[in-house]
Amino acid sequence: xxxxxxxxxTKNWQSNRGTRxxxxxxxENERQVLAKxxxxxxxxxIKLRKRQGxxxxxxxxHFVHYEDMFVCSVCRGLYGSWKYxxxxxxxxxxxxxxxxxxxxxxxxKYGHKKWPGFDFSEVVTLCYxxxxxxxxxxxxxxxxxxxxxxxxxxxxxxxxxxxxxxIGRHSMMxxxxxxxxxxxxxxxxxxxxxxxxxxFSGIHHLDKWRKRIIRENFKLFEISKDISLVDYxxxxxxxxxxxxxxxxxxxFFVKPKRKRKIPNE
Length: 265
Hints:
It contains 7 helices and 7 strands; from the N terminus they run ααββββαββααβαα. It has 265 residues and is α+β, with helices and mostly antiparallel strands. The chain has one domain (40-259). Helix 5 crosses helix 7 (243-254). The protein is globular and about 65 Å long.
């Protein structure tokens, strides 16, 4: 007991409670800042694309209300309820009423019903390289990287004149296709098959890296359980650069296959 009649344990508890309140308040302010940035981005896109009547996938993701979604601490996928923001009606009237619940990869392996208008039942995902940005998903043409990481991956693949790191699911996104007049050409068929097999292998390794980088982000901020997607993005925005993640991903791809094993996978 001290002069005020309070024990040391009580004082420590009150001090910790004050710290927790301060942290909660600070995190709430950061979430509000993130929401304001998203609103401002939507206004800029609407002003830019109003005459054209359409927007790109990298822009449409800002019109997805993902504030009720979470990041899974096991499979590193996203899950939760989603809907489109009302502002999307100016471009896609039918999407304005669309809502859904996205399962993470833990539940997807047990099978799921495909949503109307989607190739895959996934509306958003995190960048497969840095894990710091939300991307639009659900299409066979969806790109797995944010603009910064995609630019680096494209430069890498262009330099080596082949797909080292895939940017999406579809083979045509990487220049791999078989023309109608080539369906009886054995050499071209074998070359196409070899390229596609290499692409599938790259997709498999990229998914392993996706889990690793998000796991590293969790570890960096001492997150041990499922976290709100918005809170995760607040933490991720404090990571100084995406270049380090890209460099690590390149190192991961050149390692022998036996060394690519992910812990707890």
